């Protein structure tokens, strides 16, 4: 029932939110909303803290689905990363996680579970990242080439080898992956 509801929310209530004009909640250091800010401005000023969501998909062997960001992306083009996106102003992180999963991978019907909220900062932006995870069972991933140019399922060792060989990967997400692979974060993968 919940998944039907989420599919309805995704399909009927949200437009593809990839515009620089998209409004985000502006939050303080405690993640309390204090206003709104355009995505384009928030992505250029680390003092303007906003919210983002990330979706980690793992198979039964704890291999993770990663994506190579499109060359058309304004932030981290041609870089490997996990699925992530901005949370629009007033939106719920969980709903946004399902929306990102549908927008970027055309996947629906995968239950997602909240994992953690962490503060992430880059030279150009700062945000609270809401991490969700789900089980990947080999579903076909039909990605939007304006968002993503390649998708892989990799093990911890394969990801490490990619990074060591010089493949650009958003290393800000490595700590959360390492906490899962080490067992520090207890996650259940149901196939």
Compact summary:
The protein has helices at 2-13, 39-42, 93-105, 156-164, 174-182; strands at residues 23-27, 33-38, 50-58, 64-69, 80-81, 83-86, 113-121, 126-135, 148-154. It is an alpha+beta fold and 191 residues long.
Structure, described:
This protein is of the alpha+beta class and about 190 residues long. The chain has 5 helices and 9 strands; from the N terminus they run αββαββββαβββαα. It has helices at about 1-15, 40, 95-105, 155-165, 175-180, and strands spanning about 25, 35-40, 50-60, 65-70, 80, 85, 115-120, 125-135, 150-155. Strands 6-3-8-7 form a 4-stranded mixed sheet, with helices on one face. A hairpin with a 4-residue loop joins β7 and β8. α1 (about 1-15) packs across α3. The longest helix has 13 residues, at about 95-105. It is globular, with a radius of gyration of 16 Å. Residues about 10-15 have low confidence and may be disordered.
**Oligomeric state of the chains present here:** single chain
What's the pLDDT, averaged over the residues?
Answer: 89
The Rg value, from CA coordinates, equals: 16 Å
Q: Note the main sheet.
A: 4 strands, mixed
Topology order in helix (H) and strand (E) letters: HEEHEEEEHEEEHH
- Summed up, the helix count is 5
N-to-C span:
19 Å
**What structural class is derived from the secondary structure elements?**
alpha+beta
What overall form do the CA principal axes indicate? globular
Strand residue content = 25-35%
What is the percent of helical residues?
A: 10-25%
Uncertain parts: 8-17
Strand order of the largest sheet: 6-3-8-7
- The count of β-strands is 9
């Amino acid at each position: 029932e919940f998944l039907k509801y989420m599919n309805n929310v995704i399909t009927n209530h949200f437009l593809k939110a990839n515009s620089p004009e998209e409004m985000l909640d502006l939050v303080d250091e405690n993640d309390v909303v204090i206003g709104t800010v355009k995505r384009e401005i928030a992505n250029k000023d680390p003092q303007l803290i906003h919210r983002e969501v990330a979706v980690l998909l793992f198979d039964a062997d704890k291999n993770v689905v990663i994506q190579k960001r499109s060359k058309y992306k304004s932030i981290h083009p041609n870089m490997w990363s996990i699925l992530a996106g901005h949370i629009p102003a007033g939106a719920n992180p969980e709903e946004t996680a399902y929306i990102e999963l549908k927008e970027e991978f055309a996947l629906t019907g995968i239950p997602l579970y909240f994992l953690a909220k962490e503060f992430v900062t880059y030279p150009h932006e700062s945000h609270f990242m809401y991490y969700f995870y789900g089980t990947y069972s080999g579903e076909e991933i039909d990605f939007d080439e304006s968002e993503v140019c390649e998708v892989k399922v990799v093990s911890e060792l394969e990801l490490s080898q990619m990074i060591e060989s010089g493949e650009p990967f958003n290393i800000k997400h490595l700590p959360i992956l390492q906490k899962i692979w080490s067992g520090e974060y207890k996650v259940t993968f149901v196939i």
